[in-house]
Design a protein that fits this description.
It is a single chain. This protein is an alpha+beta fold. The chain folds into three domains: about 15-95, no CATH class; about 110-340, Hypothetical protein af1432 (Orthogonal Bundle); about 350-430. The protein is about 45% helix and about 10% strand. The protein is built from 16 helices and nine strands. It has helices at about 5-10, 55-65, 85-95, 115-140, 145-170, 180-195, 200-215, 225, 235-240, 245-255, 260-270, 290-305, 315-325, 330-340, 390-400, 420-430; strands at about 20-25, 35, 50, 70, 350-355, 360-365, 375-380, 385-390, 405-410. A hairpin with a 4-residue loop joins strand 5 and strand 6. It starts with a helix and ends with a helix. The relative contact order is 0.09.
Length: about 425
């Protein structure tokens, strides 16, 4: 092929087939020339800004250390390009996610403040109230009002676009007496956040929010005592409880104007990739994508909430459960995306510092996860007070002889700390250094 024909072909092709191409490290071949990767060149054994894959050993280094690389085919002696594949799609997604303005990074570097917290509190309270009224109506009439649910999601979509970080923080404020309503709203918020991070279309993102809101609607048709039982359920009780998925599907299918995939999410959100879920033991891609998404946020919110049979566990514990289950119980790409979206710590997380102090995270630091901006907490008698604001990364830069970092992420409500009241008070007081 002549150079001119090559140029014409390249200019008319999609970004996928441009001279520079994102490649999964496993698809590298000897003769490819790598010009970019997902880490600084100073962290590699190669010269700055470029390395030829000269041997299988060089390829293995990229496989061991990178999620994606960019190959420059003009500088490559080997012109072979990988074919479309799930592996390549994953690499291209990872490369896009590395961009600061990608939705997966929406919680990074965002500081909670008086305005965002105040607006989010109003929005969340409205959503929680609407969700509770929706559930009460459904329980009373044993039918589902799609217009009321749509109103909740439309309100949420607008609030989410303006105050995502504050709303995600509010999902961490738990009330065991309102678990069903809060769980519905929390799963709607987290479901829409994850859908955005996965680059789903806006219409599908709203459907994700609706699915989060109604995925457990079938609980209204099971013995309510089972939902509040503190002792372990016996086999018969667990069998009845599992029927909430079937009941939910039936209730949603009865509403002809609702997307049918909502019924699929209600039926399948307890199915697992390895086929060991319920009610039908579906596996892998046989589980609806919307159900795979909801299963992740459902588990995360449940694990971090107080339940009659166990105390809430930390943000880290929940992410660890999802991480260990990726590719086995949960969709691998969705889990990895959710973990990156939520971050090692997210705004509102309670933490313990290396000097023993308790603090609440106000702002994360994408490049220095152990060193976020925090609000220090002080105890006066039995009450906790919000103290000064501290940027751990800046503190360590200015104090070379000390190293202050997060060493433990605490469960919501740990040590009797009300993160909600403390953070609201701190936001009202404004920043302190």
């Amino acid at each position: 092929m002549s150079n001119s024909s090559k140029k014409t072909s390249s200019s008319s092709a999609s970004d996928f087939w441009q001279t520079e191409m994102v490649v999964h490290p496993l698809d590298l071949q000897v003769g490819h020339y790598v010009i970019r990767l997902d880490r600084p060149w100073l962290e590699t054994p190669f010269e700055l800004q470029g390395a030829e894959v000269s041997s299988p050993e060089v390829k293995q280094w990229f496989v061991d250390h990178c999620k994606w690389v960019v190959v420059d085919y003009q500088r490559s002696s080997n012109q072979s390009r990988p074919e479309h594949s799930e592996r390549l799609s994953s690499a291209m997604l990872a490369a896009r996610q590395a961009q600061a303005d990608h939705p997966i990074n929406a919680l990074q570097e965002v500081q909670l403040n008086e305005v965002s917290v105040g607006l989010a509190l109003k929005g969340y309270s409205l959503l929680d109230d609407q969700a509770r009224r929706l559930l009460r109506s459904a329980e009373r009439h044993q039918t589902f009002d799609p217009s009321a649910a749509q109103a909740v999601i439309e309100e949420l979509a607008g609030t989410l676009s303006r105050n995502l970080a504050a709303l995600v923080w509010l999902t961490r404020i738990k009330d065991i007496d309102d678990y069903q309503g809060q769980h519905a709203v929390n799963c709607a918020i987290l479901g829409m956040g994850l859908a955005r991070a996965l680059e789903w279309e806006p219409s599908r993102t709203e459907i994700s929010g609706m699915a989060g809101l109604v995925h457990d609607i079938g609980n209204l048709r099971v013995d309510q005592g089972l939902l509040h039982k503190s002792a372990r359920l016996n086999a018969d009780e667990f069998a009845e409880l599992k029927q909430h998925t079937v009941h939910g599907q039936a209730m949603l299918l009865a509403e002809k104007h609702l997307p049918q995939e909502l019924a699929a999410a209600a039926l399948e959100h307890h199915e697992r990739i390895d086929g060991r879920g319920y009610p039908e033991g579906k596996r892998g891609d046989g589980i609806h994508p919307l159900a795979r998404l909801i299963s992740i946020v459902d588990v995360y919110d449940a694990v971090t909430s107080d339940r009659p049979y166990r105390r809430a566990r930390s943000h880290h514990d929940a992410l660890s459960i999802l991480w260990r289950g990726r590719g086995k119980k949960f969709d691998r790409l969705m889990v990895e995306t959710f973990i990156r979206f939520m971050g090692w710590v997210s705004p509102g997380t309670l933490v313990r510092l290396s000097d023993g102090q308790a603090a609440v995270v106000e702002q994360t630091n994408a490049k220095k996860g152990f060193h976020p901006v925090v609000r220090l907490l002080t105890r006066e008698g039995n009450a906790w007070q919000a103290g000064s604001r501290l940027d751990l990364a800046r503190f360590n830069e200015q104090n070379e002889d000390s190293s202050l970092r997060v060493i433990e992420v605490l469960p919501d409500g740990a040590l009797g700390i009300s993160a909600k009241s403390l953070l609201v008070t701190a936001a009202e007081r404004g920043p302190e250094e």
